[in-house]
Design brief:
Blueprint: H1 11-19, H2 34-40, H3 43-52, H4 55-66, H5 71-82, H6 93-114, H7 125-133, E1 137-140, E2 145-148, E3 151-154, E4 161-163, E5 176-180, E6 186-190, E7 201-204, E8 234-237, E9 242-247, E10 250-255, E11 260-266, E12 271-274, E13 283-287, E14 290-294, E15 333-335, E16 341-349, E17 352-364, E18 368-373, E19 380-385, E20 389-396, H8 402-409, H9 415-423, E21 427-435, E22 438-448, E23 454-467, E24 471-477, E25 480-485, E26 489-493, E27 500-505, E28 530-533, E29 549-552, E30 557-561, H10 578-610
Antiparallel strand pairs: 1-30, 2-3, 4-5, 5-6, 6-7, 8-9, 9-10, 10-11, 12-13, 13-14, 14-15, 16-17, 17-18, 18-19, 20-21, 21-22, 22-23, 24-25, 25-26, 26-27, 28-29, 29-30
Helix pairs in contact: 3-7
Length: about 625
């Protein structure tokens, strides 16, 4: 603002003005001036807001007030009551000041015990407060549709991955959601709104490209439908602009610039899960009976000169018995005594979270988390006994100590002890799954041993208060852990794995199916099969945890945002087609009129029946 504006006001006056505002309604002030924006986003201010309103602090206060008084103090108090009245002089002002100082230091210690952030971690506490205590809404991405015979049908999505071209450094901050569709195509959505309308479809490939035969490109010879029960069937190479999609036993590489197949790799068994793509290391592929390392840099490309050769018939190299009698040995792989892996994690490198170490962790429908070292693969390095069926794995590049977290629950660690606890080396392995039909949230502290291998130093398993049904997917979100469960909920927990911060119900994705002409029936809530954080990887100027939660229900894509109103609704995507929008409004109006007419008719029948004229 020119002249005398917000920037010219003293900070004390601006603080008083902000004190009268709702913390969730300051977003318009962020556009006033840089001074107001800096003040409104003050980390210490919002950190205190987050602390005082946190369930962790409320639980700590409750425990302190409900803690029984020791017997020795009760006896002392009883004897004091029997004695003569206290004739001591009134408490001096310096005693009140000392008491106030003690309360302040006690509050600082409580805040330090709660503080989930680590010394080297960048946190925007305004965004953290909004994610913990602000309003939230569910946004449904545009639905791919196809029209056949005048009837419009929804095309289901069968997976989810995030694509950040050039790791988010393309100049626009582009972030795209990618999913294989049930018609054999690849679809891309705009997550941030940098390439078009936020939540809209940016591009869609030709149909059947995932079903075509590898050798003769014959669309009549297809594999079966894409199995929607596999959550991690697609992974993205941001720098190479490639997507890897698992369709039964084939690993299909897609060029994201051309949306066309680049190569196909066949495995001996059906692919159940894929790891994330990291530079310089092979992709880890989990099949139903083994774990494989796939170096896509030496991939078997689809040769485009095949169709130009006349000496090669369309049925060449399609002998079904060729693979049976092939004498070529299988490449090294780690066999699984128990089938069906569900999640593969490349552990980040200590001190460099953007890079990965040689440690690979695999979970599945078995009671142990398997640990492999890429340098000694396929020899297994060790196992972590869980006892639960783990569906999702993620890692936090900071240490975990069960003993420290138990003392922090009581607010007992001093500032020096807290600093020592957070600066110890190590990482945290976070797992989510099911144990005895209930959700199990598990934390494992990992530390390097003398051989520079990660070994478990402690574990914490929450199998009572985490979720009433199985945990399907787990991720890091700011300074919190977020997971989805089989009840249709997104839940946020503190990093201690015990204290729940908030929860949000996804609801039903198909609004048109919630009611009918005759009655309004609530639809069954969808569940988030896979969740991802939309945290940007771009420059230092961005707020580090100004992100939402993208999820996949098994059919559709949605996003949980932290605002009073949704970022976009389904009608926003139909505005480009006025005829379709008018037809939809007419259909809804007709259904509403018919519903009212039937209700009036039913009321008349009941009224006449009460008169005995029925």
């Amino acid at each position: 603002m020119a002249g005398h504006g917000w920037d010219d006001l003293p900070q004390e006056i601006m603080m008083q003005i902000l004190g009268y505002l709702d913390p969730c309604d300051i977003s318009p002030l962020l556009l006033v001036s840089k001074g107001v924006q800096k003040l409104c986003l003050d980390d210490e201010l919002w950190k205190q807001h987050s602390f005082h309103q946190s369930p962790w602090y409320q639980a700590l206060i409750t425990r302190r007030y409900s803690r029984p008084e020791p017997l020795i103090f009760r006896a002392a108090n009883a004897n004091a009551d029997e004695d003569e009245p206290d004739q001591s002089p009134p408490v001096a002002d310096e005693d009140d000041e000392a008491k106030a100082q003690h309360q302040r230091s006690h509050r600082i210690q409580d805040m330090a015990n709660w503080d989930p952030a680590f010394p080297e971690e960048r946190v925007s506490w305004y965004d953290e407060y909004m994610q913990r205590s602000g309003p939230a809404s569910i946004n449904w991405m545009q639905t791919p549709k196809v029209t056949q015979g005048g009837i419009e049908a929804i095309i289901e999505s069968h997976g989810l991955a995030l694509y950040n071209p050039y790791n988010g450094e393309d100049g626009l901050g582009t972030m795209l959601a990618i999913s294989p569709l049930e018609d054999g195509s690849i679809c891309l959505w705009d997550v941030k709104g940098s390439r078009g309308k936020q939540g809209s479809i940016v591009a869609k490939s030709k149909t059947d490209i995932l079903f075509q035969d590898a050798m003769n490109d014959c669309p009549k010879k297809r594999s079966k439908m894409i199995d929607s029960s596999i959550s991690d069937r697609i992974t993205i190479d941001n720098t190479g602009h490639r997507a890897f999609v698992a369709v039964q036993s084939q690993l299909i590489e897609i060029d994201l610039n051309r949306l066309d197949v680049v190569s196909r790799e066949s495995f001996e068994w059906s692919i159940m899960t894929l790891s994330a793509v990291h530079a310089g290391v092979p992709l880890t592929v989990g099949t139903s009976l083994g774990i494989h390392l796939h170096d896509f840099r030496s991939r078997a490309r689809v040769h485009h000169d095949v169709v130009e050769r006349v000496d090669r018939g369309p049925l060449a190299d399609t002998n079904a018995f060729k693979g049976i009698f092939d004498q070529t040995p299988l490449p090294p792989y780690a066999s699984l005594s128990q089938a069906t892996p569900t999640s593969i994690l490349h552990l980040p490198r200590q001190g460099a979270p953007d890079l990965v170490s040689d440690d690979i962790y695999v979970s599945g429908r078995f009671s142990n988390i398997l640990h492999y070292d890429r340098r000694k693969f396929p020899v297994i390095c060790g196992t972590i006994y869980s006892g639960a069926l783990i569906n999702g794995l993620t890692a936090l590049p900071y240490p975990f100590s069960k003993a420290d977290y138990e003392r922090r629950q009581q607010g007992e660690l001093s500032l020096e002890q807290m600093g020592h606890s957070k600066t110890q080396g190590g990482q945290t392995l976070i797992a989510g799954g099911a144990y005895s039909l209930k959700g199990s949230l598990e934390l494992y502290g990992l530390s390097p041993d003398s051989m520079d291998r990660m070994t478990m130093q402690g574990a914490w398993k929450n199998r009572y208060t985490a979720a009433s049904s199985t945990i399907l997917s787990v991720a890091n979100h700011g300074t919190k852990i977020v997971f989805s469960d089989g009840s249709g909920l997104l839940k946020w927990f503190e990093r201690d794995g015990t204290t729940e911060c908030r929860r949000l119900r996804i609801g039903h994705s198909r609004t048109g199916a919630e009611g009918s002409m005759f009655e309004s029936m609530p639809g069954t809530d969808d569940v988030a099969r896979k969740i991802l954080s939309t945290q940007s990887r771009s420059g230092e100027g961005d707020r580090p945890n100004n992100d939402n939660i993208l999820f996949w229900t098994g059919e559709r894509l949605g996003m949980a945002s932290f605002a009073a109103s949704p970022l976009f609704v389904e009608k926003d995507f139909d505005m480009d087609d006025p005829e379709k929008s008018a037809e939809e409004e007419a259909r809804q109006e007709y259904a509403s009129q018919m519903r009212r007419a039937l209700q009036h008719s039913a009321d008349e029948v009941r009224f006449m029946g009460n008169l005995g004229l029925r």
